[in-house]
Amino acid sequence: MKKIDKGIGKSALQLVLANSDEIEEAETHMKDSDFIYCLGKTGSMELQKVVSAIETAAKRNAVIDEELYREMHALYHAILEALEGVTRGQVSLGDVMRTVGLRFSVVRGRPYENEAEGEWIAVALYGTIGAPIRGLEHETTGLGINHI
Amino acid sequence: MKKIDKGIGKSALQLVLANSDEIEEAETHMKDSDFIYCLGKTGSMELQKVVSAIETAAKRNAVIDEELYREMHALYHAILEALEGVTRGQVSLGDVMRTVGLRFSVVRGRPYENEAEGEWIAVALYGTIGAPIRGLEHETTGLGINHI
Amino acid sequence: MKKIDKGIGKSALQLVLANSDEIEEAETHMKDSDFIYCLGKTGSMELQKVVSAIETAAKRNAVIDEELYREMHALYHAILEALEGVTRGQVSLGDVMRTVGLRFSVVRGRPYENEAEGEWIAVALYGTIGAPIRGLEHETTGLGINHI
Amino acid sequence: MKKIDKGIGKSALQLVLANSDEIEEAETHMKDSDFIYCLGKTGSMELQKVVSAIETAAKRNAVIDEELYREMHALYHAILEALEGVTRGQVSLGDVMRTVGLRFSVVRGRPYENEAEGEWIAVALYGTIGAPIRGLEHETTGLGINHI
Amino acid sequence: MKKIDKGIGKSALQLVLANSDEIEEAETHMKDSDFIYCLGKTGSMELQKVVSAIETAAKRNAVIDEELYREMHALYHAILEALEGVTRGQVSLGDVMRTVGLRFSVVRGRPYENEAEGEWIAVALYGTIGAPIRGLEHETTGLGINHI
Amino acid sequence: MKKIDKGIGKSALQLVLANSDEIEEAETHMKDSDFIYCLGKTGSMELQKVVSAIETAAKRNAVIDEELYREMHALYHAILEALEGVTRGQVSLGDVMRTVGLRFSVVRGRPYENEAEGEWIAVALYGTIGAPIRGLEHETTGLGINHI
């Protein structure tokens, strides 16, 4: 019956993992699908700025309707869940002396065959986390998924 | 100087994200690199079995040397960090009535240009998490990276 | 514009806080509102049983449609959030040698003036938490709210 | 023997849940009991200010004796436990781009029949949590209880 | 005024850190002080057994009065805080495939000059944590302190 | 085979627990061993400053090589683990209105008999945690251990 046959999470992850020569194909693939999405970059020692950058991009690109709290609520929790993967333990950056440089994607659509399942949202993050010194960093990723 | 130019984390993620028709290419790509790796599947309501399945695969495929605690210690923490991304908040499964079905990869190698940085290990997870009822689930992912 | 004028959370809390002589009034008040709800009791050292009892009651009383994952997903996260309030720190019971005796309510409805905000769900918990010895316990509460 | 017959936690919750026309009755009820209490409001994106507002009110209203560390210690942990219920997962506000508007009560007294159980303290919180934009918020609650 | 001049925490730590030839001196030192204490060993993959072993020892040695919930409550939270130091992140053992072998001490007394500060309790833990395979382990410690 | 016979963790703890008349002996004992170490003090409401003070001391005293990310990575995670013991629940200070005054030690060496286990690092913390008011504080400790 219900099946994740369109992989909204995988779609979101592939957008942030794509190299500069793969991104065009990844974006074309998204445009051919029923999903809508946005893609961006953010880097900061302040978690607040990371949350804010993703929210702003999702609003500006009309991936979510900022007039509706239910949509903002769905997005917010998907962002926080993705940040759990990025921060792995304590959802904080500067407070524990670390910084991130991330690519993010927000994908919205109907990933289940059953139409009644409605729309869902996926937030994917990929980039680096480390000390606030160039090179002292390793890769990190996170994925948050929510019904909308 | 130091740069994540070989992307040990991205390599690990691409292995678990590959479809059945992409996996051969992904594995060939790995074999051409200096990285060693293993790939597997695990599904359970018991977190303990997930940890154990990954550890066993890494040992059997000689990705890590089980005789050395330092290698087991590096792998263990990379697994736990990847599970933070999968569980997003509370590192538990059955206790909070949920189950996972995951593909995992463990990749080991030298991701930094500077040889002195030595070996690192990446654990990537991708699959589904949800209620212990077929279909009541969504995608989830996690990545843990550690020096070895 | 949007305003929590119907207090879905407060409604849920008042149901679990009502004494035996207040419960009739509280239930009448609910029946006069647009909210649908269910009310129950659960007690266990196993968190899994607490989650399960609430899910089962919500399904049996048709507060949520168990055929739809989006509804189960909304309920599940509302339950977990309510349990954060009950457990205050580590979402576990028997593992850290404690047990709960709880009244729970699940309330579903439209708490915002703006119709487009749609339906939301609130899970309220109230009871005791303590050592698995009669009397060695104090009160505890929790509230989780989610869009549905 | 021991029994939570006076419900210090429920008393604290009812104070913060009372509407403007119920508060007088709730306060009268408290004055007739052996409990002492204080009641206040606080709103902030900074968790520090929330903790501080509650501590200050409890000191000014002589609910606790600020000269005694043991009393401050009991209050502090009760506040933190109540905040776990409010924040549900990560005890932070502005860092994860959210703000609260809360009513709080601090109640002190002897909730157990056995006199030797001595005094206990309850901190209850009720209000809204959400984005720092009017209306993008839902209800939240928390209760912390400690021996004093 | 108030000062931690008797170091209840340090006293508890020194008891668990003492080698076999230092333990006699450490115990003599304790007996000369106003503190009462108990000392024991516990090892398990089940957190529940660790909590239980410490509680049982504290009761049997009359460090706390098991008839009084306020004393059990003070001890319980001190144990949990000590376990946060031992587990560093997720308060779980077997669920994440690890085991502990610990020495524990529970010390009770008046650590502050001001008599009104009354009695406090300290729980110290020291030992090893690691995989359930001999030798794959490293040291770990934890300290919890509470008013009683 | 492998055995924690040199106690890198206990060595680190004894350095921070030593009184002014014991410190000389403790340091002499360290100098006679194969371990290298540094010792310092830090106090702050900002966690960032605590992390930074320990990192700076370890670099200046050549306990770790700041040019190598793998060493900084090992140290960083050992510091965070030690801070879990100090903060017991939420790794934050000023945000939850508390401050610390800590002695810290960083010890590096080969604690296992098997030479192949290589070098490990231990970070020990001991001091006080409490309200930002003199005297309203109790003792706290933490220990983090990592392979390097």
Automatic annotation (TrEMBL), chains A, B, C, D, E, F:
GO BP term, pick one: L-histidine metabolic process
For molecular function, the Gene Ontology terms on record are: RNA binding
Q: Which superkingdom?
A: Bacteria
The record's annotation in InterPro entries points to:
Regulatory_HutP, Regulatory_HutP_sf
Which Gene3D superfamilies does the protein's record reference?
A: Hut operon regulatory protein HutP
Q: Which Pfam families does the entry mention?
A: HutP
Coiled-coil residue windows = none
User: Which keywords does UniProt give here?
Assistant: Activator, Histidine metabolism, RNA-binding, Transcription, Transcription regulation
* Subunit text: Homohexamer.
Q: What does this protein do?
A: Antiterminator that binds to cis-acting regulatory sequences on the mRNA in the presence of histidine, thereby suppressing transcription termination and activating the hut operon for histidine utilization.
Family listed: Belongs to the HutP family.
Q: What is this protein called?
A: Hut operon positive regulatory protein
